[in-house]
Write the structure tokens for this entry.
Amino acid sequence: MKFGLRLRGGLLATLIMFGAPVVAPIGAAFVSSPALAQTVQSISVEGNRRVEVETIRSYFKAGPGGRLDQGAIDDGLKALIETGLFQDVKINRGAGGQIVVSVVENPVIGRIAFEGNKKIKDEQLTAEVQSKARGTFSRAMVQSDTLRIAEIYRRSGRYDVRVTPEVIEQPNNRVDLIFTIEEGAKTGVKSIDFVGNVAFSSYRLRDVIKTRESNLLSFLGSGDIYDPDRVEADRDLIRRFYLKNGFADVQVVAALTEYDPEKKGFNVTFKIEEGSQYRVGALDFRSSIPNFDPSSMRSFSRVNVGSLYNVESVEKSVEDMQIEASRRGYAFAVVRPGGDRNFEAHTVSVVFNIDEGPRTYIERINLRGNTRTRDYVIRREFDLSEGDAYNRALVDRAERRLKNLDYFKTVKITTEPGSSSDRVILVVDMEEKSTGDFSVSGGYSTTDGALAEVSISERNLLGRGLFAKASVTYGQYARGYSLSFVEPYLLDYRVALGLDLYQRQQLSNSYISYGTKTLGFSPRLGFSLREDLSLQLRYSIYRQEITLPSYLANCNNDPTSAAFNPSPAYAAANGISLASTNGLGCYNDGEASLPVRKELANGKTLTSALGYTLTYNTLDNNKNPTDGLLIDFRQDFAGVGGDVSYLKTAADGKYYAPLVSDIVGLVHLQGGVLTKMGKDLRMLDQFQMGPNLVRGFSPNGIGPRDLNPFGTQDALGGTKYWGASFELQMPFWFLPKEVGLKGAVYADAGGLYDYRGPTSWTVTNEVNAPGCIPSTVNPSSAGTCTGLVYDDSKVIRSSVGVGLIWQSPFGPLRFDYAVPLSKGKYDRTQEFRFGGGTSF
């Protein structure tokens, strides 16, 4: 490390500034009777400018009788040197044996500057160094600061950093301290290898850890930056992963890191000793607490005989049992799991021991580090408070909840001794982080076309734990805005209240001839019934209307009108030549289907509905699942006021399972039923299906369809649907894991049928009805719009296809190419489909 110095006094000044403290030889007089007779007040001080004489004398401690001995003089000398206030300290004997302390004070730092730093701001470096402006200059402190700055850069992935401190002398014993920094290039992780892994491939284990290999898109993230703390944390993640999958003896022996000067990066190697995979051989419950039935805890166990031994399941079982015991009045009950391995059978006998723990109470809960978040927002995540019995399971649950809030970078709950042996103090240490987001999103899909969204959100509004979001969407075929607000603790109960106000506009496109406008408001309540089970109750009220281009609803059977544009039926009944009406009259340019025109005639429709959703979720990762089950069951009852009434029921289930060689299997089942409840069903109430049910078909491409050869042949939807899909997702082993690409092959099947919407309606004035085929030739009289002929065959639609899934830095993207194997006669296909988006 280079240490630069600029002084105006030549070599002598340099020696004074950086020479070691010099202690002048203490003559024989110092140990003789006259020296020992000296007192603190007889010490004279030379060379001091800022430090007072009495301050320097105070470092010399007199013995009995107020006299100084040799030991006191030596101790005072050492103490003065250790203050860091002086460059040099000497002790000499003056006239008459007097002690003379000669000091050379360290300069005062006038200013501290950083040169060459581009990646890290001055403010951050100033906060990290110990040397401060207007503070005392210390060579040892400057060396420490130099190392600290270099360490900060290394933590950000720049191991080639060079830091050179320079000192510029100024008048009045002041200096300027300048750190010149050569940042160097970013030093990333060039390779991640695993040694000793047999049960799981290196590709799979790279998905477990946080460290990533450098690639072309690494500049968008920081996972490839070498961080020794993160590598050490990865060791624990690998161990936990193996323990979760039955490897009770696993050891991650070491994480070896080696710098490769040619690649200018690190090679990281994890050495693993897997051991054997165990299953649960037996399960037992024991209790030493009188009158406590241990078998009653069996229903709270997540461990089953014959299943893989899973440490996480054991830990969650312990937590659930301990909380349940506390609810039953056994506040100090402690559940301790035990296990006996059978090395030959590769089984573990799990025993849950329920014992009486120490009677310890919580004296206080101290919060540290929450400068913005209100105390009550943190305290409400605890299921215990001051004065309650100390329960480690509840404390661990509170810590997990605080981390899940995503308000803090770190959360750690520790205990300190209280005022007595049966009291403890809970200390919650937190480091807050930014909770506001501003995003600009863009994307494209074959359904909605180009799409852009601007949104602003805050997860911890005013430090009160409230969530608020506003977004505006503008696209080729979809536009609108939404406002959302969530109070996670309604009336101090663990019930989330959400409010949503939205306006959406769907424009006509190649898949539908009409557009829709929807303006709605929806309050909702969310309950967490269990860690894997949640319930949402909601009320929705929205106004909806259909929009149509004028040429799709322009029939006019009034010959006296300038807009006379007869329907084919009117022309035939009145002997009007179609040639005189441009061939087909109002159907020459196509006419929207009868149900669509009826919606147009009805105008704006108000829907008022109550509903709920029950969700069961055991996925290992919500964004990129490889194992677990996700089931949604939802019902909505429309008819609480409004213009429509129905009961809509839908279920959707996805099951993910790891197969072999990092291949993940997905089984997806879905179905729904729409039931009439009094009022007639609208076309807009029906289920509309396409690639969301069977890939290879266009949006609104499946199910009942208007067969009018002169019209737009709109999809009418249906009241019943079902779908089944099987998919295999596999990585591209020849590509780096960090690229985020994987492929899929799949087979889909499903059906949509049983249209129950309008097929005719009575009108009072045929002229004003938008495009009806009249049952009477008198345009002024009442009539009935008829003529809807539609296909509603119950044919099974099926397809097979391949897909490309990319978890890109630009957001999740998916490309699908599917070939229909069976379809309805009038279905519409779309073999290629693409969708995706991003936030930046």
Q: What stands out?
A: The mean pLDDT is 82.
